[in-house]
């Protein structure tokens, strides 16, 4: 059975929990206590030298990075409706959107989120926060155009993008950025998908 090294507060771990639930793949959770810095010590550093969760264990095979784990499982199992199409340009566009999700939303979003959560306000790097907000605003413009005429981001069906975004759109109001209506409706749709709702408790 698969084992997933994870932490219940980690959004990157939640992506993989959502995915495993969505695909009905049985697995065991191995909790890594980030709050006790268990991830920075052995034996966890032998599991992932970067000291980060999630990590999937499949027999002797270890794999870190949420996106890589989901791609591995998609390739390993032949699902009736796979996230990645056989058509090369469809796959290329999906890869483009995945990259943009990481670099134009999750990364700048984490800058704002972690600063607000863990840094005293007088120490906030206001320029960095403003720049992150602008990047997310531009990203929302792109998503809005897609979602005005589609229910989901890629080929109009729930897929890997929704799994990757889900934990990062849960507390979207924390970004203090105007959310276009089509994005807010998509967000509600994603958060009410049963495998998402089960993990995020939405
Ligand atoms: N790019 C990685 C990011 C993983 C990551 O940043 N995990 C965080 C928890 S959400 C972590 O383990 N942080 C512990 C640390 O950096 O000490 C992924 O997609 O899995």
Automatic annotation (TrEMBL):
<dbReference type="InterPro" id="IPR036249">
    <property type="entry name" value="Thioredoxin-like_sf"/>
</dbReference>
<feature type="domain" description="GST N-terminal">
    <location>
        <begin position="1"/>
        <end position="81"/>
    </location>
</feature>
<dbReference type="InterPro" id="IPR040079">
    <property type="entry name" value="Glutathione_S-Trfase"/>
</dbReference>
<keyword id="KW-0808">Transferase</keyword>
<dbReference type="InterPro" id="IPR036282">
    <property type="entry name" value="Glutathione-S-Trfase_C_sf"/>
</dbReference>
<dbReference type="GO" id="GO:0016740">
    <property type="term" value="F:transferase activity"/>
</dbReference>
<dbReference type="Pfam" id="PF13417">
    <property type="entry name" value="GST_N_3"/>
</dbReference>
<protein>
    <submittedName>
        <fullName>Glutathione S-transferase family protein</fullName>
    </submittedName>
</protein>
<comment type="similarity">
    <text>Belongs to the GST superfamily.</text>
</comment>
<dbReference type="InterPro" id="IPR004045">
    <property type="entry name" value="Glutathione_S-Trfase_N"/>
</dbReference>
């Amino acid at each position: 059975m698969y084992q997933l090294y994870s932490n219940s507060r980690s959004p990157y771990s939640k992506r993989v929990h959502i995915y495993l639930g969505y695909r009905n793949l049985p697995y065991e959770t191995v909790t890594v206590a980030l709050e006790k810095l268990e991830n920075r010590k052995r034996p966890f550093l032998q599991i992932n030298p970067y000291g980060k969760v999630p990590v999937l264990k499949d027999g002797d095979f270890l794999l870190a990075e949420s996106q890589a784990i989901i791609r591995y499982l998609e390739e390993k199992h032949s699902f009736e409706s796979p996230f990645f199409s056989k058509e090369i340009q469809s796959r290329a566009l999906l890869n483009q959107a995945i990259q943009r999700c990481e670099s134009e939303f999750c990364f700048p979003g984490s800058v704002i989120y972690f600063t607000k959560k863990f840094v005293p306000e007088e120490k906030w790097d206001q320029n960095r926060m403003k720049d992150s907000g602008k990047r997310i605003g531009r990203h929302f413009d792109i998503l809005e155009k897609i979602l005005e005429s589609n229910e989901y981001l890629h080929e109009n069906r729930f897929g890997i993008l929704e799994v990757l975004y889900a934990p990062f759109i849960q507390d979207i109001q924390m970004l203090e950025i105007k959310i276009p209506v089509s994005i807010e409706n998509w967000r509600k749709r994603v958060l009410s998908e049963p495998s998402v709702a089960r993990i995020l408790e939405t």
